[in-house]
């Protein structure tokens, strides 16, 4: 079945550092890929998405590229801020499927 | 756009009480809504999927008589936790999706923290 694996957290960085959160997936066919962010005590917000190979999703300085050859969708940001502290979830939606399959989440803390 | 409102945000009640949580799509029609449960520091666990006007499809291991889901309109779904007990305490999150197809993202509510005493 479909699955998503994220790098284990927690991840702690200093402000203005470069961020990478790894995400790899297993799926048949051509899934759509998503990154969601969850701030403390809140639901999830869609951060970015990509629907086909080589697509790059971007939003608020975050980027992720759909790499079919490596089955990856790593999240990157060039310079993080304290306000980026949150839990980040990688997810996929398989062909013909309604459901989202989530990774386990990566807790990110940015120190000033 | 794509706002999902979930209410209430927090509930504290006694064991044996039934609790209803509402999930509304405010600016789009949600053909499909989803209910998740999240334990502390864990990922989301899908409980059920509901399509407007149809019975909900529950995930394996989720008691449908315990967690009643109604999706009576294109903008409203409700989850009722019947005869709640302390083990039902959790963070419940709904999401909604307009249209069909895997490219349509799910939009999430802010969650409901349920505490059963």
Q: How would you explain this protein's 3D organization?
A:
- Chain A is built from no helices and 12 strands.
- The mean pLDDT of chain A is 93.
- With 112 residues, chain A is mainly beta.
- In chain B, 0% of the residues lie in helices and 51% in strands.
- In chain B, the strands form 2 sheets. In chain B, strands 2, 4, 5, 6, 9, 10 and 11 form a 7-stranded mixed β-sheet that branches. In chain B, strands 1-3-8-7 form a 4-stranded antiparallel β-sheet, with no helix packed on it.
- Chains A and B meet through β5 and β6 of A and β5, β9 and β10 of B.
Tags for this model:
heterodimer, A: 112 residues, mainly beta, six-stranded mixed beta sheet, four-stranded antiparallel beta sheet, globular, B: 117 residues, seven-stranded mixed beta sheet, 11 strands
- What kind of assembly state do the chains in view correspond to? heterodimer
Biggest beta sheet summary of chain B: 7 strands, mixed
Number of strands of chain B: 11
Contiguous runs where pLDDT drops below 50 for at least 5 residues of chain A: none
Rg of chain B (C-alpha, Å): 13 Å
Cα end-to-end separation of chain B: 37 Å
Task: Describe the structure concisely for a colleague.
With 112 residues, chain A is an all-beta fold.
Task: Please describe the topology of this protein.
The complex is a heterodimer of chains A (112) and B (117).
Chain A: E1 3-6, E2 11-14, E3 19-21, E4 23-26, E5 32-38, E6 44-50, E7 56-59, E8 62-65, E9 75-77, E10 86-93, E11 101-102, E12 106-111
Chain B: E1 4-7, E2 10-13, E3 19-25, E4 32-38, E5 44-51, E6 57-58, E7 67-73, E8 76-81, E9 90-97, E10 107-108, E11 112-116
């Amino acid at each position: 079945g479909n699955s998503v694996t994220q790098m284990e957290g927690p991840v702690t960085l200093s402000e203005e550092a470069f961020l990478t959160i790894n995400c790899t997936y297993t799926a048949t066919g051509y899934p759509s890929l998503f990154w969601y962010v969850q701030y403390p005590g809140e639901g999830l917000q869609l951060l970015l998405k990509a629907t086909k190979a080589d697509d790059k999703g971007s939003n608020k300085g975050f980027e992720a590229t759909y790499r079919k050859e490596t089955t990856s969708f790593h999240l990157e940001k060039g310079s993080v801020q304290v306000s980026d502290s949150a839990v980040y979830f990688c997810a996929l939606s398989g062909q013909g499927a309604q459901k989202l399959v989530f990774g386990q989440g990566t807790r990110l803390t940015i120190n000033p | 756009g794509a706002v999902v409102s979930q209410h209430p945000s927090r509930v504290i009640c006694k064991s044996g009480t039934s609790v209803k949580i509402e999930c509304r799509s405010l600016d789009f029609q949600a053909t499909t809504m989803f209910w998740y449960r999240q334990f502390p520091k864990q990922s989301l666990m899908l409980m059920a999927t509901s399509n407007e006007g149809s019975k909900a499809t529950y995930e394996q291991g989720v008691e449908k008589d315990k967690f009643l889901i109604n999706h009576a309109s294109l903008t409203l779904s409700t989850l009722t936790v019947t005869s709640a007990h302390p083990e039902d305490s959790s963070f419940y999150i709904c999401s909604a999706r307009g249209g069909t197809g895997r490219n349509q993202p799910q939009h999430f509510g802010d969650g409901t923290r349920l505490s059963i005493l």
